[in-house]
Design a protein that fits this description.
The protein has 484 residues and is α/β, with parallel strands linked by helices. It folds into two domains: 68-274, no CATH class; 288-479, HAD superfamily/HAD-like (Rossmann fold). The protein is built from 16 helices and 18 strands. Strands 1-9-8-2-5-3-4 form a seven-stranded mixed beta sheet, sandwiched between helices. It has a six-stranded parallel beta sheet with strand order 15-14-13-16-17-18, sandwiched between helices. Strands 7-6-10-11-12 form a five-stranded mixed beta sheet, with helices on one face.
């Protein structure tokens, strides 16, 4: 079918689908309204009407792919940013995981890429038992040499195809997954069970990962927007790394869909699987335990993040990070865990430094953390002292640890659930404050520079050698798995 005719027929049949045979119309309208609450109901209907036209056209193109001459395919589909990294990876003896979604015409594009470059392709998909779908799949496979593997038990064959044959794996990440095979991340306004399979496959095969999407242009041709290759999470806990990768790719996919909403597969029941109570999920707010609330880690400052000197830090150049502290905080940042500092700073109350001086010290801490890719979401401090404070700073306040005021402030600000969160400090006052605020508490023992660390008189829930050790244990408790 010539492209102009295909566009006209698609318009007619898409109109009939929406108005006369409203199969999945309500599902699509509900999903679009949830994803675009800022749009009007009329705009939602306009998107779905255009979407039905697009889906009909895409179906005709997939069927036509079997018979289209190669020259027509080369005129119909173009790519930006995909061939270069794929061919470079092949020259290095590596395959490529090509991440995409059901936007534009993914099936047409992946098949055409083979003719444009000669690179063999493998996909993982449910294989129909018979009928037209099975016949169409076999026709596409015969024409392109594409390997089609069933999802169950295919990992070794996929890894072999990527490592030994240096194929492209076409991998879509926007389908609903059964609970046991996916992780839950926020997607277009609701939690969706999403495959982390691309992350596992890329790590096992050493393949590069190139994300991208296909756009149908106004003239009926297609443009693939791909690259550059992405770097996977470096978290040493494989379950944490898989969630981080899946969250990042889901956000990229959402951006593609928001750019061309009429070209996504809205009729798919993407949000069918629901998380169980107590399951870890990644939302737009950060890491949460489903039904229990948001996860955070509250940190003491001196002796936990920076060296305890035996005297107060009175100038920015006196603040020295404890080795490994920045990396531990970066891991929490990447995983969506709120990181807040709660610290007693009586030197302000004593008149040794001003609050502006303290701000400069904290700015120095932020700069040192930023050099290692980490950041603190907030710093709460108490400037008071009950006996040594000057003027209004001499008070028995509720914010100075061991009172829980600072921790309660952070809890309320970020909407944290203390029971699924953690406080990390280095001394008795931290244990007492955490207990009063309802937080599990871990003390670290490697932060004192002036003398050997002294175990507390009131035992914490756990004693760790360092902040990295404390965060390892915390993430293992939340996610399972072991740090590698």
């Amino acid at each position: 079918m010539p492209t102009p005719l295909l566009l006209r027929v698609g318009s007619v049949l898409g109109w009939i689908w929406y108005h006369v045979i409203p199969l999945r119309r309500n599902d699509a309208l509900i999903a679009v309204a949830r994803a675009f609450p800022e749009k009007t109901p009329e705009e939602h209907r306009r998107i779905v009407k255009a979407n039905f036209v697009h889906l009909v056209r895409a179906l005709f193109e997939v069927v036509g792919f079997v018979a289209y001459p190669v020259e027509r395919l080369k005129k119909l589909v173009r790519f930006e940013g995909l061939a270069e990294p794929v061919l470079a990876a092949r020259a290095e003896g590596r395959g490529t995981v090509c991440l995409s979604a059901h936007i534009g015409s993914f099936e047409l594009s992946m098949g055409t890429f083979h003719f444009l470059t000669g690179v063999p392709i493998v996909i993982v998909a449910r294989i129909p038992k018979g009928g037209i779908s099975r016949s169409l799949l076999e026709a596409v496979r015969d024409r392109t040499g594409m390997i089609v593997l069933p999802p169950k038990g295919s990992l070794p064959k996929v890894v072999h195809a990527l490592t030994e044959e240096r194929r492209i794996l076409g991998f879509v990440t926007d389908q609903n997954m059964p609970k046991k095979r996916g992780v839950f991340v926020d997607f277009l306004g609701e939690i969706a069970c999403t495959t982390p399979g691309f992350s596992v496959i890329a790590r096992k095969s050493g393949a590069i990962v190139v994300p991208g999407w296909n756009e149908r242009l106004a003239d009926g041709t297609h443009l693939g927007h791909f690259g550059p290759p992405i770097t996977l999470s470096t978290d040493p806990n494989p379950r944490v790394a898989a969630l981080n990768d899946t969250w990042r790719v889901s956000q990229m996919t959402e951006a593609w869909i928001r750019a061309k909403p009429e070209q996504w597969f809205w009729v798919h029941r993407r949000w069918k699987s629901k998380p169980d109570a107590g399951q870890v999920v990644r939302t737009a707010r950060g890491l949460e335990v489903w039904g229990q609330g948001r996860v955070g880690v509250l940190l003491d400052r001196d002796g936990t993040i920076n060296r305890e000197l035996g005297h107060s830090v009175l100038a920015p150049d006196e603040l020295e990070l404890i080795p490994g502290a920045a990396d531990a905080i970066r891991r929490l940042n990447e995983t969506g865990v709120v990181v807040a500092v709660t610290t007693n700073q009586a030197p302000v109350g004593r008149g040794q430094i001003t609050e502006a001086d303290l701000d400069a010290i904290h700015q120095r801490m932020r700069e040192l953390l930023a050099k290692e890719g980490a950041h603190i979401d907030a710093i709460d401090y108490c400037p008071h002292h009950p006996t040594e404070g000057l003027g209004a700073f001499k008070t028995a306040c509720e914010c100075r640890k061991p009172s829980p005021g600072l921790l309660n402030t952070a809890t309320k600000r970020w909407g944290l659930n203390p029971r699924v969160s953690l406080f990390v400090g280095d001394r008795d006052t931290d244990v007492k404050a955490a207990r009063a605020a309802g937080y599990p508490v871990t003390l670290v023992s490697n932060g004192w520079a002036h003398k050997p660390w002294e175990p507390p008189t009131e035992p914490p829930d756990h004693i760790a050698e360092s902040l990295p050790d404390a965060i390892d244990r915390f993430l293992e408790k939340r996610f399972g798995g072991r740090t590698e």
